[in-house]
């Protein structure tokens, strides 16, 4: 029977939308380790995937926008402590919101629309948790400046106590203590407060939560891979 073109009017290139997979947890929880591994495994299994982190500034095939995003990254992440201190918490919240906004609009959304999956390491949830423990900045303001970002399809929450995370990491930066001091106890106090905030968020959000305290990298990866297959039908 002859087919008409009427039913075949869809554009030639109309791939299924990609999936956004986000990894959250306190510093040292193993986010980068898992994100890197998922990125590699998805690509090896034939699922085109990009890994987006704190220092991803490339806008595909656009040198001018890439240069702009790189300048913003330098402003937000490559500044010294005196500048950070002088500018203050509200400025950094808004600067971070600008950074996350551009990453979402210029990199993540176009990739998803083109059918590419996105693994997001360093999502804004940790920033929200950090601001939630800061009495000088309104929590609702912090929530609002990130509210427009693309909602991930799956969030892996890697749970571990700050003390156990520190034992893995060995060292930490001033930012990782909320600039509260340089002692191990400063890291632990601050990160455990951030963890408590992430756990509040977890209650609202349908996150896939894993207690990674006694799990090695392979076990975390295996659990995450099973969830990708179950929830997003992505086999790796
Ligand atoms: C996942 C994992 C990480 N590590 C180490 C590697 C790194 O030095 C450190 C933090 O891992 P990393 O993946 O960088 O954590 P995050 O991105 O959440 O800050 O812990 C372990 O010792 N064991 C593990 O099972």
From TrEMBL:
PANTHER family, alphabetized: THYMIDYLATE KINASE (PTHR10344), UMP-CMP KINASE 2, MITOCHONDRIAL (PTHR10344:SF4)
Keyword Ribonucleoprotein: no
Family annotation (Gene3D superfamilies): P-loop containing nucleotide triphosphate hydrolases
Statement: the UniProt record of this protein carries the keyword Nucleotide-binding: yes
Protein's organism: Amycolatopsis tucumanensis
Name of the featured protein: Thymidylate kinase
Superkingdom, natural source: Bacteria
Key words of the record: ATP-binding, Nucleotide-binding
Domain Thymidylate kinase-like, chain residue ranges per copy: 25-174
Listed SUPFAM superfamilies: P-loop containing nucleoside triphosphate hydrolases
Sections of the chain in a coiled coil: none
Family in the record: Belongs to the thymidylate kinase family.
Pfam family, any one: Thymidylate_kin
């Amino acid at each position: 029977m002859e087919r008409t073109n009427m039913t075949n009017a869809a554009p030639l290139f109309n791939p299924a939308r990609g999936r956004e997979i986000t990894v959250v947890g306190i510093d040292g929880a193993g986010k980068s380790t898992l994100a890197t591994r998922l990125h590699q495994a998805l690509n090896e299994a034939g699922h085109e995937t990009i890994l987006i982190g704190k220092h991803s500034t490339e806008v595909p095939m656009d040198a001018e926008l890439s240069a702009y995003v790189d300048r913003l990254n330098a402003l937000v992440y490559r500044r010294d402590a005196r500048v950070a201190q002088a500018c203050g918490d509200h400025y950094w919240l808004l600067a971070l919101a600008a950074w996350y906004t551009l990453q979402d609009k210029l990199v993540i959304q176009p990739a998803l629309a083109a059918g590419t999956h996105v693994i997001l390491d360093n999502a804004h949830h940790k920033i929200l948790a950090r601001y939630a423990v800061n009495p000088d900045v309104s929590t609702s303001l912090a929530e609002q400046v990130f509210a427009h970002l693309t909602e991930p399809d799956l969030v892996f929450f890697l749970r571990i106590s700050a003390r156990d995370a520190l034992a893995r990491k060995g060292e930490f930066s001033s930012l990782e203590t909320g600039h509260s001091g340089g002692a191990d106890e400063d890291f632990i106090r601050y990160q455990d407060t951030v963890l408590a905030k992430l756990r509040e968020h977890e209650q609202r959000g349908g996150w896939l939560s894993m207690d990674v305290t006694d799990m090695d990298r392979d076990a975390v990866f295996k659990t995450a891979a099973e969830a990708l297959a179950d929830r997003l039908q992505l086999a790796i």
